Amino acid sequence: MRRCIATGRTGSPEGFVRFVLSPDAVVTPDFSGKLPGRGAWVSASTEALAAAVKQRAFARSFKGEAKVSGDLGARVEAGLAKAALSALGLGRRSGDVVVGFEKVRAALKDGKVAVLISARDGAADGVRKLQALASGAAQITLFDERELSAALGRDHVIHAAVLGGAAAERILRAAQRLEGFRAPDGAH
Predict the structure, then answer these.
(1) Which of 2, 82, 72 is nearest to 43 (CA)?
(2) Taking 90 as the threshold, does the pLDDT of residue 164 lie above it?
């Protein structure tokens, strides 16, 4: 169990972002959870991070000087997005992710899909058609076509589906952490 230094909320580490101090006392996100040093945990949301900065919670948690860069929120969002997209790419390489409207639709009809991923800048008609078939499947709309294409090693990826198992769990955990920093429509 972890406790947010800003909100006091407790929960499992998957719902938090860990921060450590660099040697020059700069607050640094630790996405792997493995950097050395005392960690400070913040709920995975823009609001909790802003509250931690405003309340000077990092300095209290680290019991000393803690420099916070002005772009910390953007760095956290970028790091969480990279982790989520890496998990998606790993799922593709292991054969647990299918790509393309027809392949995703077929997998949805067969009931094999655990997670439906739609590009937030994809055509609404195609997204709507697949979402109608996705009863029971988790849905992610956090990424644009460019991000999905880069992560999956294909051009023009609008639709993807994760077939289940450990890959689905890993991708969902990473996406849930990112969700607090990125609105589904891309607004910040």
Answers:
(1) 2
(2) no
The one-letter amino acid code at 125 reads D
Per the rule left: phi > 0, alpha: psi between -120 and 50, beta: everything else, 86 is alpha
185: nearest Cα among 120, 127, 122: 120
pTM for this model (two decimals): 0.90
Three-class DSSP category at 123: coil
Q: Which residues contact 36 (CB under 8 A, 6 or more apart)?
A: 20
Hey, CA dihedral for 103, 105, 110, 114, is it positive or negative? positive
Judge whether residue 188 has pLDDT over 60: no
Residue 140: CATH number of its domain: 3.30.1330.30
Q: For residue 24, how many C-alpha atoms fall within 13 Å in the half-sphere facing its CB?
A: 2
Q: Which amino acid is at 55?
A: Q
Structural domain ending residue among the three candidates 70, 102, 121: 70
Token pair 């949805």 in the structure block, residue:
108
